[in-house]
Amino acid sequence: MIVIGICGGTGSGKSFLSKRIIKKFNKYKVEYLCLDSYYKDYSDLSFSKRCGINFDHPDSIDFELFYQHLKILKDGDGINSPIYSYKTHKRLSKNNRINVCDILIVDGIYVLLKKNVRKLFDLAIFLDVKLEVRKQRRINRDIVERSRTKNEVENRFEKMIIPMHKKFVETTKKYADLIIKKNYSFKSIASRVEVLINEVY
């Protein structure tokens, strides 16, 4: 199995790139795993307290479970990935089955933060997209998909997202095999993946 890690700040286009790779290589069995599914379960806290948690800090991620699941997949078994609700800030009771595959796409702002996780990637990509572009994308997404107001998103961006990005996300760029900008060539990424596929299959 080939494991591709896609990293970058919020709104950098990680899920968009993941979908393009999945579509391009759909003749293979491809699965998708998102680090956002692995927020810690804060269901024991009240909704108001959950709303106050800094979900942009790496401490909010259950890296232990994430690593265990990646390792299980790498070793040839399927997993039941958690499903997280952004509206209620807690895990749902149902899971998402991810089976053994040829190519596993893993994305998230902190997928390159932990050494043990990085070691499992055959290719690590960092999307290096400017702040203003990412901010506007985040505003658009959160208003439509997460029922947030523009004010709420902007406040969160200034108080939590920007400081956490500078401290934790930006510093992981050095671990990427490929650093790409907004107007990147998908063809070059596809070629890199093709080389990996030819080596393994």
- Report how far the terminal alpha carbons are from each other: 9 Å
CATH topology: Rossmann fold
Radius of gyration: 17 Å
Point out poorly predicted stretches: none
Reading off the top of the CATH hierarchy, the class is best stated as Alpha Beta
CATH architecture: 3-Layer(aba) Sandwich
CATH superfamily: P-loop containing nucleotide triphosphate hydrolases
**Percentage of residues in DSSP E strands:** 15-25%
Count the E strands.
7
Overall geometric form: globular
- Residue share in helix: 40-55%
How do the strands line up in the largest sheet?
2-5-1-6-7
Number of helices: 7
Number of domains: 1
Q: Class by helix and strand content?
A: alpha/beta
Sheet with most strands: 5 strands, parallel
- What is the average of the pLDDT values? 92
Secondary-structure element order, N to C: EHEHHEEEHEHHEH
Put the structure in a nutshell.
Helices cover 41% and strands 20% of the residues.
Q: What report would you give on this structure?
A:
The chain has 201 residues and is an alpha/beta fold. It has a single domain (2-196), classed as Rossmann fold (3-Layer(aba) Sandwich). It has helices at 14-24, 47-51, 63-74, 115-118, 131-145, 150-169, 186-200, and strands at 2-8, 30-34, 79-85, 90-98, 103-107, 123-127, 178-180. Strands 2-5-1-6-7 form a 5-stranded parallel sheet, with helices on one face. A two-stranded antiparallel ribbon has the order 3-4. The protein is globular. The chain starts with a strand and ends with a helix. The relative contact order is 0.23.
